[in-house]
Amino acid sequence: MPIGRITFALCAPVLALLVSSIPTYAARCGGDFNTFMSAMSQEAAAAGVSQAVISQAFAGITQDPAVLAFDRRQRGTFNKSFEQYVATRVGPGRINIGRQMLLRHGSLLARIEQKFGVPPEIVVAIWGLESDFGKGDVGKLPVIRTLATMAHDCRRTELFQGELLAALKIVQRGDLPLRDLIGAFAGEIGQTQFLPSSYIKYGVDFDGNGHVDLRHSVPDVLASTANLLHVSGFKGGAPYGEGTANFEAMREWNRATIYRKTIGYFADRLAGR
């Protein structure tokens, strides 16, 4: 995932997952769900979310048992060797399509590299791995319901309370309407699977329409992906293989070494190396 996914192996923009960066919220997990949501409504209002957005987002909300069941099944995505894993993710077909994307979006990627210092092949590799260049599964679940379900669960309540508030802010900013705020099983959104807090922190309006749209706008998707890496310390023109500073910077995308090695492998193939 922009993590792609939150698993115990960790994935998606993972700065949002660092416990040290998670503020403490007052809503008490567990117990009656409606009582919890009332407390979250107060938290959202205190965080500056309008009552109109809160009422719309939380109206009739219920828990999603499928989200909890999926989360409890997770035991770590990366239980294969690098060779086994990369063989399932980077085949000739995906490499060929990736090279087509490099050509099709060459001008855009050049502007992104100039601004953020991240080479096109890295950005396109992440795009391909996360959503098959926007054509694959980016999730079909209502993000607010998903995050409310996970926040009510006591295992990582502070993390997901923060993500729930960030999701409300996405709606409040006008980046996505509530009906379009759909995502994956941990609330990841868009073509490179940003958690809502990363959406707020790193999202870039690169098409200039006044909104950060990580579901539909390719310029916003690719520029935001590059921005996350740039802010995390990725330096243009430097190597990104295992053991390098750039490889470590990519840890803020995904903490799993195998996943970062796969990004680098894919990028090298896209660049003809």
From TrEMBL:
CDD domains given in the database record: Slt35-like
Calcium recorded as keyword: no
Annotated Transglycosylase SLT domain residues: 33-241
Signal peptide span: 1-26
Keyword DNA-binding on entry: no
One Pfam family of this chain: SLT_2
Key words of the record: Signal
GO biological process: peptidoglycan catabolic process
Listed GO MF terms: peptidoglycan lytic transglycosylase activity
Name listed for the protein in its UniProt record: Lytic transglycosylase
Species per Swiss-Prot/TrEMBL record: Bradyrhizobium lablabi
